[in-house]
Amino acid sequence: MSARLVVVGDTLLDRDVTGSVNRICPDAPAPVLDERSATDRPGGAGLAALLAAAHGVEVTLVTALADDAGGARLAELLTAAGVTVHPVRLPGATPEKIRLRAGGQTLLRLDRGGDPQPPAEPPEAALAALRGAAAILASDYGRGLLRQPTLRAALAEVSAPVVWDPHPRGPAAVPGVRLATPNLAELRQLTGDAGTGSPLSTATRAGHELRRRWRAAAVAVTTGADGAVLCHSGGTPLVVPPPSPVERVEDTCGAGDRFAAAAATALAGGAPVSEAVREAVAAASAYVAAGGAAGLRASPPPAPADPATSALELIARVRTAGGTVVATGGCFDILHAGHLATLRAARGLGDALVVCLNSDRSVRGLKGPERPVNGQDDRARLLAALDCVDAVVVFDEPTPHAVLSRLRPDVWVKGGDYAGDGAPELPEAELVRGWGGRVVTVPYLAGRSTTATISAARSRGDDLVKGAV
Predict the structure, then answer these.
(1) Are strands 11-24 and 31-44 parallel, antiparallel or unpaired?
(2) At what angle do helices 255-268 and 273-289 cross, to 10 degrees?
(3) C-alpha closest to that of 432 among 414, 416, 448
(4) What are the beta bridge partners of residue 305?
(5) pLDDT given for residue 307 in this prediction
(6) pLDDT at residue number 371
(7) What GO CC annotations are associated with the protein (predicted)?
(8) Please, which residues have CB within 8 angstroms of residue 325's CB and are 6 or more apart in sequence?
(9) CB 389 within 8 A of CB 383
(10) Given this model, what pLDDT does residue 294 score?
(11) Environment class of residue 196 by beta-carbon count within 10 Å: exposed (0-12), middle (13-18) or buried (19+)?
(12) Is 421 noted as a catalytic residue in this protein?
């Protein structure tokens, strides 16, 4: 589903430091956490935006970001998740929440960033995003953005449905919001209700009171594993239980954000409030069942493997087995039968062949600005597809000296130009001999060369043009 959802509110940088505890600190009765991993993610309004974007929603985030490393990290994480960010300048430091965790439990939370600072004026692009939204989620984390007068005036004037996810330290919702989404504890603080009676009676009584005070169309009070209680214009509340009980709860952090974002998304699609709350309960329940914030701490996709590292691993395996590593190099711009003959001959000299391939920049320096004809990625893929090639490493320098020093092959092979009596010695020969390697040459196939292939193609092209005139 695609919807123009605008999230506006305070964003924090959440960091989860995960490790193991095997001992107690010798100078204090405190556990010692041996760190194993650390994961950053947006928190607050940023998490709500992230969760909505992860479910195919077109999301814009209006938030306050400080001009520091934390603010830059938040912008990077949000943009990478597909969220469009309209930053409002935040004086001071980015607020951070650092959770130290072991065994699926939080041992300690460290908060950074100091007292909230009033944000600057929002840019016009942020105000235009509010005016063009299909729905708006005001995600308040008590840091002050939703007190900003210009933003509040803009929120009060929009025609799109507004969902207000409040914070006890934050301001009241602007009048006329479609739905407010406090949890039960927040509701009691916002209304001063003592909470006498059952949770259902408290949610109903205090929910109607908050709706009256804020002049909201409805209030959905989230009640954890019991779902939500919707207080609307009728006197009888709508109790919305989860679709199925959650068997195991590892981490509920972010469940409220998932609820509010799902409700706002449903309203953006034209759903009535009751249906939006049902969808929100189902979404939050599924989020918690999947591990909640723990699910977001899954390891990111691994970065593409460094070809040189892969080649080094191959070399180590071959040498462990007592084999011989062969390497050769070149531009291999247009792969032809001469190249294939050289590569097969080189592979026949050992147990693995590594091709050191000149990068595009290196080829331009050697051959001129019109080369290479084929880019380095294509050239590397073609070489790697050959059964006689075991690994390909691209190097950027004019000569292969640096990559050879790293790979240290047993045999270095070159062809054609360096074969025969009176031929100059290979420039890399002294380097290779330095670690006990051997340097050999193999012949080219006569009449096969990239330069000749390119010249022939251009000549035929010229003849075709002339024939057509």
Answers:
(1) antiparallel
(2) 140
(3) 414
(4) none
(5) 66
(6) 85
(7) cytosol
(8) 315, 318, 319, 350, 351, 352, 354, 407, 409, 410, 411
(9) yes
(10) 59
(11) exposed
(12) no
Contacts of 174 (CB under 8 A, 6+ apart): 138, 152, 155, 156, 162, 164
- Nearest-angstrom CA–CA distance, 52 and 162: 15
The DSSP string of 285-302 is HHHHHTTTHHHHTSPPPP
Q: For residues 387 and 367, what is the distance between their CA atoms, to the nearest angstrom?
A: 28
User: Residue 57: is it exposed, middle or buried by C-beta count within 10 angstroms (0-12/13-18/19+)?
Assistant: buried
Dist CA 283 CA 220 (whole Å): 15
**Those residues with Cβ within 8 angstroms of residue 444's Cβ, 6 or more apart along the chain or in another chain:** 338, 341, 342, 415, 416
Consecutive H or E run containing 36: strand 31-44
Among candidates 190, 201, 188, 197, which has minimal Cα distance to 231?
201
What six digits make up the tokens of 48?
A: 């709500």
Instruction: Quote the tokens at residue 218.
Output: 């409805």
Q: 37: which strand partners?
A: 18
State the catalytic residue, choosing from 14, 16, 257, 410. 257
Task: List, in order of start, the domains of the chain with CATH numbers.
Answer: 4-297 (3.40.1190.20), 307-453 (3.40.50.620)
Strands, E, within 104-184: which ranges?
A: 105-112, 135-139, 162-165, 179-180
B/e letters for 346-379, b = 16+ CB within 10 Å, e = fewer, are bbebbbbbbbbbbbbebbeeebeeebbbbebeeb
Distance (Å, rounded) from C-alpha 49 to C-alpha 1?
15
Tell me the Ramachandran region of residue 426: left when phi exceeds 0, alpha when psi lies from -120 to 50, beta otherwise: beta
Helix H or strand E segment including 402: helix 401-407
* CA end-to-end distance (rounded Å), the chain: 55
Give the model's pLDDT for residue 313: 84
Q: Write the DSSP symbol of residue 42.
A: E
Cα–Cα–Cα angle for 294, 300, 301, rounded to 5 degrees: 140
Weakly modelled stretches of the chain, pLDDT under 50:
1-2, 297-305, 419-422, 461-469
φ/ψ region of 30 (left if φ > 0, alpha if ψ in -120 to 50, else beta) reads beta
What pTM, to 2 d.p., does this model score?
0.62
- In 3D space, the residue among 411, 387, 414 whose CA is nearest the CA of residue 318 turns out to be 411
Supply the DSSP symbol for 233: S
pLDDT for the residue 303? 40
Measured distance CA(434)–CA(192) in Å, rounded: 81
